[in-house]
Each structure stands twice: as structure tokens, then as C-alpha cells.
Design brief:
The protein is α/β, with parallel strands linked by helices and 250 residues long. It has nine helices and nine strands. A hairpin with a 6-residue loop joins strand 8 and strand 9.
Amino acid sequence: MWKPNLQFSMLVDSAAALVVTSAEPGEGKSTTVANLATVMAQMDKRVILVDTDLRRPTQHHIFNVPAEPGLTDVFLNELTVEQAITKTAVPNLDLLTCGKLPPNPAELIASPWMEKLISLLKARYEIVLFDSPPVLPVTDAALLASKTKHLLWVVSAGKTRTDSLRRAREALKQVDAKILGVVLNRVTSGSAYGHYYYYYYSKDSDKKKHKPSAAPMQMPSIPASGSGNGNGNGRGKRERLEIPPETMPE
């Protein structure tokens, strides 16, 4: 079981809304944020995980729930937030999936509507986590981080390139995103720290303080919700839709 130590948990608590991202695809950020959401919910926090990786959403696969309805359905005023939220099998943990794949993800994330949604979710949950696209291929992650101002960075051991880290960090600095910590993912099983290792950043500078967790952090088992029928099983056809950027929910 992944058990972040008290100091790391307090950092997440202080953020309230936290973007989890990586420099490039394939570094394990979606699994990491799902695990983090599960652990925080098991610590009796009211948690919602929002899949804002609107190009390659995966949270519905991880939790074995239908992909629709979701975020884009709320954006279109087809459903209320309450109607689009899925209850997971983990007590205290709700999920807002991507919904239909939008043709203009960056416009949706950059819209005033997204700011309103973030404020609404922060008022209803103790912790709001966003599974964001990687920083470098698209602008979505930087746009979202500019709204939450707090970010957790996932780095894959032996895979993430140093130049990618530098370029991604520069992109995040441009939007004044505060990097609360860095999770070193996929550490070899023979290492001292298990599957995860993290760093946290000091408040007043870019100097990072290295802190291993109090215990090896193993991935929690995420209970599946529902039967996995429909689009949630990963085999259903995903419909693309046109989203008017100016649309605002009530």
C-alpha cells in the first residue's frame, strides 16, 4: 500500500486543487494520481479525481467505469456536475471522467468555465485532483496549472530525459505553477524505496529538499466499480463532439 508520510499528506491538503502531470507521455502519471486519490480517500478525505487528459483519458479504464457521461457533458450543459460524477468503489472517492472526446481540449481547459468548475469542486471536496496531459506535447497541463497553481510532477526512473525535465519546468514557470513535489515512479524493486520516491519543494526557493517516504510505497489495489460495460471497458467507440468554447454552465 502506498502510504505517503504526514508531511507529504499535509502538502496535498494545503493545495486543495492539485494537477498531476509528467513531462512526456508514458511516465505513469495517470496510475500515480489514481493511487494518490485512493490513498487520500482511505485517509477519510473527501476526494474527487477529474480526468482532464482530454486527448487520451484513462481513469475510466483504471476504475472500470463507463467513460461517459463526464466533464464534456457538463461543459455542454447536458448534465449537472452531480449527474456526471461517478461514485467509485473506494469510499470517499468520486470520479469525473472525460466524457466525449472534444476537438479543442486546450480551449475547454483555458475557458472561464474551467475556473468556475474548479471553484465549485473545491467547495464540495477536501481534495480535488486532476489527471492532466503531459506538459511537453500540448499546452493543456500548463493551462490547467495556471488555474490551480499547485502541481505534482511524475518522473519515470530511467526513462524521463533531463532535457525534457528542463523544458517542462520552464513551461510551468511561465504560468507561475507551484511544484509541490516530484514523484519518482517505477523505481526498480531492488531499490531501497520500493515503487515510488518523492521530493518536495521548499516554499521560498527552487531548491528541492529530498525526502524519502517513511516506508516503501506500494501501489494500492483499486477496487473496480460496475461491470465495465459500454465505453468504460476500453473497447467501445468514443464519439467526438463539437464544443462551443463560449458555453458556460449554470
